[in-house]
Amino acid sequence: MSRESDFYLRRLHSLLGIIPVGLFVAQHLVINHFATRGPEAFNNASNFMGNLPFVLFLEWFIIYIPLLFHGFYGVYIAFTANNNVQRYGTFRNWMFMLQRITGVFLVVFIAWHIYQTRIQKALGADVDYDMMADILANPFMLAFYIAGVVAATFHLANGVWSFLVSWGITQSPRSQQIVTYVSMVIFLILTVIGVQALFAFV
Length: 202
Ligand code: HEM
What we know:
- The model has no long low-confidence stretch (mean pLDDT 96).
- The protein is an all-alpha fold.
- It is built from seven helices and no strands.
- The longest helix is centred in the middle third of the chain and has 32 residues, at 91-122.
- Helix 3 (55-80) packs antiparallel against helix 4.
- Protoporphyrin IX containing FE binds next to helix 1, helix 3, helix 4 and helix 6.
- The site of protoporphyrin IX containing FE has 27 residues, from helix 1, helix 3, helix 4 and helix 6.
């Protein structure tokens, strides 16, 4: 691949990680959080999202196509990256490596999650509070979903940091340090929202 096309693909990969995939993930966790108010509140929120006008178009253009590109190109980046944590055990190197590990884990988690929910819906199942409660009644599934949610919140929060660096928005060490703290807060807030929602089904 030429350097120039590599550059544009990297930029597109980076942008899609925030818009729309990152925004969708944050929105998805907030909708799931309605489960903490009971089955009816969750089913209403989820039906509202599922009955939006042009929902199939929205799903493909806001979720699947951007996620497929980000995921496939992400796997390529992850396996061609120079992980040098052993040589330079700095905080940023660990974040760099964890970004790749969580990305690869998310491929597995998201594929399984889509299979268990969206594909079952397409096959005629009712994807509602009761269905999620059945899935999460299995302790292995609960652990897998917690790992998936934490991987996604970490990947998104740390992704905000690297997005701002990739686009030249945070250049000075001080601005990068501030965004490190901001990304930690984003990670904590989204993790609490996501994990609380999971426990609301148990
Ligand atoms: C939950 C869904 C996902 C979200 C919200 C998300 C979001 C992001 C964001 C915001 C970035 C930062 C972009 C930048 O560095 O400029 C990023 C980077 C990255 N993502 Fe994802 N991503 C998701 C899923 C995936 C998947 C499935 C993979 C597959 C391996 C992946 C692999 C990567 C890699 C390798 C990077 C680092 C890119 C770099 O350093 O240049 N991501 N992601």
